[in-house]
């Protein structure tokens, strides 16, 4: 993942732990096996979960309250949840990803309301399933939310997740890293452009880069991977060819 070096460093520890478990170097209970990612929309939380599974060679399962609730009534929801949890345990090593964890709701102070009883059942089941997953060998639990403060306190209690990591908007170095990933390292992005793009998410920057490349293609600008020799070609505003490094004669 580009633009998130601190987060990636900590997630690499989970990958290393899972690799050690697969090699019978550590016990399952000594492995970091759960992480809650939180931060603004578009910062790459889902991509981080997918990348972790890919790097670890683990089966990846993604779900959310919306996916599970689509099954129908409460009984159908509980059955759907049990099925994805069973799949994660059966396919170990695996990564199960709960997107939009806040959408599972929170228990209200009015236990007499129908909605409160429904959400209490949903939250209680989620807590039970998280306990099962945390006890299962070779299963990594990753959850993501844009609204940490909307999650039921019981889900956030100490010990529920081994790590709680904030996934921030990219800083200047992150902006450059993401744009270099899309444009190539031979294209230099001017400082003023980088400053202007601060506050944009990784998803925003990817869209901007794709749009700039589409505009360049529309202007009949050849692809950077196969440039014609000795050509002078216009580039999107704010981008220029990076100066070649000094070489000894």
CATH topology of the largest domain: Rossmann fold
Q: Please give the alpha-carbon distance between the first and last residues.
A: 38 Å
Based on CA atoms alone, the radius of gyration comes out at 22 Å
* Cα shape: globular
Report what the structure shows:
With 249 residues, the chain is of the alpha/beta class. The protein has 2 domains: 162 residues, Rossmann fold (3-Layer(aba) Sandwich), CATH 3.40.50; 70 residues. Helix content is 46%, strand content 14%. A 5-stranded parallel sheet has the order 2-3-4-1-5, sandwiched between helices. A two-stranded antiparallel ribbon has the order 6-7. Helix 5 links the parallel strand 3 and strand 4. The chain starts with a helix and ends in an 8-residue tail after the last strand. The model has no long low-confidence stretch (mean pLDDT 81).
What distinguishing features does this structure have?
globular; Rossmann fold; 249 residues; single chain
Overview in brief:
This protein is an alpha/beta fold.
Topology:
Blueprint: H1 5-22, E1 34-38, H2 45-56, E2 59-64, H3 65-69, H4 74-90, E3 94-99, H5 114-135, E4 139-145, H6 153-156, E5 163-166, H7 172-183, E6 187-189, H8 191-197, H9 202-218, E7 239-241
Parallel strand pairs: 1-4, 1-5, 2-3, 3-4
Antiparallel strand pairs: 6-7
Helix pairs in contact: 1-2, 4-5, 7-9
């Amino acid at each position: 993942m580009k633009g998130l070096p601190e987060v990636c460093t900590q997630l690499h520890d989970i990958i290393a732990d899972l690799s050690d478990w697969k090699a019978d170097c550590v016990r399952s209970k000594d492995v970091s096996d759960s992480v809650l990612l939180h931060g603004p929309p578009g910062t790459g939380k889902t991509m981080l979960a997918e990348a972790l599974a890919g790097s670890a060679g683990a089966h990846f399962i993604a779900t959310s309250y919306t996916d599970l609730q689509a099954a129908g009534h409460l009984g159908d929801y509980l059955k759907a949840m049990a099925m994805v949890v069973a799949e994660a345990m059966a396919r170990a090593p695996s990564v199960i990803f709960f997107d939009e964890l806040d959408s599972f709701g929170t228990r209200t102070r009015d236990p007499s309301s129908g909605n409160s009883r429904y959400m209490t059942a949903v939250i209680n089941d989620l807590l039970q399933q998280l306990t099962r997953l945390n006890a299962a060998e070779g299963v990594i639990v990753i959850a993501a939310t844009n609204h940490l403060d909307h999650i039921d306190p019981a889900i956030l209690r100490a010990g529920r997740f081994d790590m709680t990591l904030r996934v921030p908007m990219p800083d200047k170095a992150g902006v450059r890293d993401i744009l270099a990933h899309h444009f190539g390292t031979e294209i230099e992005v001017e400082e003023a452009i980088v400053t202007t793009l601060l506050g944009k998410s990784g998803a925003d920057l990817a869209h901007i880069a794709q749009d700039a490349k589409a505009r360049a293609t529309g202007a009949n600008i050849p692809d950077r991977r196969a440039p014609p020799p000795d050509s002078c070609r216009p580039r999107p505003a704010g981008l220029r060819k990076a100066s070649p490094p000094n070489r000894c004669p």
